[in-house]
Amino acid sequence: MGRGKIVIRRIDNSTSRQVTFSKRRNGIFKKAKELGILCDAEVGLVIFSSTGRLYEYASSSMKSVIDRYGRAKEEQQLVANPNSELKVSLNCDLKSCRS
Amino acid sequence: MGRGKIVIRRIDNSTSRQVTFSKRRNGIFKKAKELGILCDAEVGLVIFSSTGRLYEYASSSMKSVIDRYGRAKEEQQLVANPNSELKVSLNCDLKSCRS
DNA sequence: CGAGCTATATATAACGT
DNA sequence: TACGTTATATATAGCTC
User: Fold this and answer.
1) Whole-number Å distance, CA A51 to C1' D15?
2) Spatial distance between the Cα atoms of B29 and A31, rounded to a whole number of angstroms
3) Which nucleotide is nearest to B1 (CA to C1')?
4) CB of B22 lies under 7 Å from some atom of strand C
5) Where do the MADS-box domain residues begin and end (chains A, B) (predicted)?
6) Class of domain A14-96
7) Do residues B45 and B56 lie in contact, with contact meaning Cβ atoms separated by under 8 Å?
8) CB distance B32 to A28 below 8 Å
9) What are the domain boundaries of chain B?
10) A24 pLDDT exceeds 80?
11) Longest C-alpha distance within chain B, in Å?
12) Which of A75, A27, A36, A31 is nearest to B10 (CA)?
């Protein structure tokens, strides 16, 4: 998206990499916000630059996103590896929640 | 970006919302991957659709991103609220790491 | 440097099937 | 309803200041 087409590989020149990082970081944060609003989704985005600096965006709060992520992952594990008497009822509950 | 300009507000029609969600989700994941590669950044993206389904992308692993996020947040707290004898040495260390 | 400025490359909204 | 298509809106690469 620009004057010339680029190949997606690490930008060697440090200055160019910083400039591109700044521009694209702004772009992806905007996209994340739009997705959250347009589609009523909960979005969490964490980015560490190559210099180690943290940038973040969450449509709600990062804590909320990470907590929910942990719970969702636990559910995935249970469904993939059912090993308790909760299997049947849990599967039913999950399926009924899906669109 | 399309046949018509849209306003960024929640899409009321459920079907349209799902379609837009699917397209934009793909788009933002692509952007996240490109940013990670081009700029040598560590990226973590978590999205919960309005139906509650989880979608995720991490340039490394989500665990790595979340762990690093937690550590970065702790550092931010320490720098913002210095309340220990570690203040001076920690500030020095952090500053020397910045570009 | 960091902040704009276009020309182009991409993403995607509105339609077709 | 889920997939292609394509006209348009956006993002952004390379420059300029």
Assistant:
1) 26
2) 10
3) D9
4) no
5) 1-61
6) alpha beta
7) yes
8) yes
9) 14-96
10) yes
11) 60
12) A36
pLDDT in tens, B77-93: 998 887 654 544 444 34
Choose the closest CB to A35 out of B6, B24, B68: B24
Cβ-based neighbour number of residue B28 at 10 Å: 23
B8 closest CB neighbour out of A37, A46, A47: A37
Query: Best interface-test mutation with B: which of A10, A16, A23, A35 has the largest number of B CBs within 10 A?
Result: A35
pLDDT of B45 above 50: yes
- Name the more confident of B41 and A95: B41
Instruction: Report the percent of chain B where pLDDT is more than 90.
Output: 75
Q: Which long-range contacts (CB under 8 A, 24 or more apart) does B65-69 make?
A: B65/A46, B65/A48, B66/A46, B66/A66, B66/A69, B68/A48, B68/B42, B69/A46, B69/A54, B69/A56, B69/A62, B69/A66, B69/B44
Residue in the block written with tokens 């018509």: B4
Interface probe with B: pick from A18, A26, A42, A47, most Cβ of B within 10 Å: A47
